[in-house]
Amino acid sequence: MQSFILEACHLDQLIQAIRQHGFQLVGPRLQDGAILYCEITAADQLPRGWTDEQEKGRYRVRRREDDAFFGYNAGPHSWKKFLQQPRRPVWRAQKAAHAMQIEAVVEDAPAMAFLGVRSCELHAIAIQDRVFVDNRFRNESYAGRREKLFIAAVECATAAPTCFCTSMNTGPEVSLPADLVMTEVIHDTEHYFLIRAGSARGEDILHQIPVEAATARQLRQAAAAVERVRQQVEAGPRSFDSSDLKALLYRNFESPAWDQVAERCLSCANCTMACPTCFCSTVEDTTDLSGDHAERWERWDSCFTADFSHLTGGPVRADTRSRYRQWITHKLATWHDQFGTSGCVGCGRCIAWCPVGIDITEEVERVRRLEG
Question: Going along the chain, which residue ranges are E strands?
Fold first, then answer.
């Protein structure tokens, strides 16, 4: 697959070429004190020269010492909010004469393009594909949005202390299919993107922007930038052995570790809302005061909420201990049985956005330590 060079000063031409193909472009943008995924219409809306600092229960943006466009880490929102919508209508019913007319809500989903998708996030989208598209319980809302999606991925040139993608085999280099794959390189006075197409649509875009063939030196520079991130993550505080997670957690359903984490966990569901793979939802029915109109809505839910496992006799998981155990054991162990993969991609969002600083990697090591 041939790689090309796109000078940083021509990035806006890439953005306009994608938009001219009819895509609603979504990318990173500095907003409300965070780097969020929002609609983008021009390169000057990207967080050029900004990065973020992350640790347990902490997130801050700050200026970089260079003008990198993608020099940030995983933010508070993941791409799932554009594919698995946080809240959407399912059907509407209207009273007519002596009957109710029920009509399913059929979406006219826009064709979207994601700019700046990291490798861990590509893996997260692939995991949600297994849940919503490949599974026998197909979600047509998700599938319709996913089928039209154009992905411009970016290989990581920076990593936060909360990242552990190498432990989950999800990065930092892009290994899954994407329409375009980019690596941002800043070296001395040079600032460019190594770019390659991964689909016919990606090739069409490359034909419309000013690119030139990459030299061997430029290929080495891009590879070295990604390798630095790999070494940084592997030497980081969250790197751990994930090879036996499934068996470890299956052996420790009654570990005292669950009691210890329950003393801190607020059951606030922040971790599941920020997680790019958590997919739990519920439905709620509403009606107007006249009783003539009713609607059903699907919305995100969490295994941490008290009513999530409620059955006729009460909730199956009535305490925080059982809810946290359910979350981590499902994500790291039983997910393999259901979907053939782990449900964690090592993005670290659940660590940064936990208000009491619970760290999933520390909890895994706690289970391991208390077992011995």
Answer: 3-7, 24-31, 34-39, 50-55, 58-63, 87-96, 99-104, 112-117, 150-154, 180-187, 190-197, 212-213, 281-287, 293-300, 310-311, 314-315
